[in-house]
Amino acid sequence: MMNNEALAKLAEIREEYENKKHSVLEWLAGINDNEHIQIIMDYCDDNVYERPYYMSEFDKMMEGKTPTEIIDMVSNDFNTNDDFFWFDGDGYVESGCISRVFADFGDIDEYWLLDNAYRYDSFSDFNDELNDIVNAYYDIIEDLKAAGEDVKDIPDLD
């Protein structure tokens, strides 16, 4: 029979871990806009999604295209005074300000954020807390194994 105290502690840690995972999106909402935009760009790149670019990159991205090709690519609401541009799914170029980028590209998977937290300095404290939780969980499992307990039915942390 497995140690009930250890099982209760594992359940408590699993709940704390789930709460931390959900708070990752709150963390994302509280960081500065520049870092948030970089995370959006990284997320889109890693997942092969269309992504926003800084308007300052527009000329370089259009190199080799004729003026007619560029005109045919831009949508009616494209504005070079916007901060960002991107290609929609049909190859047209759209533009927008930071709030539009957040609205159009801001749905970032919390699991991706957890897996890629090491990239972002402002995530380090949060990531350290999460690592402590994970380590505590697996330390208990290792202690149970060392005591001869069968731990195959204990779920992993996702």
Question: Would you summarize the structure shown here?
Answer:
By secondary structure, the protein is mainly α.
Structure notes:
With 158 residues, the protein is mainly alpha-helical. It folds into two domains: 1-30 and 120-150; 32-107, no CATH class. 57% of the residues lie in helices and 6% in strands. It contains seven helices and three strands. The chain has a three-stranded antiparallel β-sheet with strand order 1-2-3. Helix 2 (33-46) runs parallel beside helix 5. It is elongated and about 75 Å long. The chain starts with a helix and ends in a 12-residue tail after the last helix. The model has no long low-confidence stretch (mean pLDDT 89).
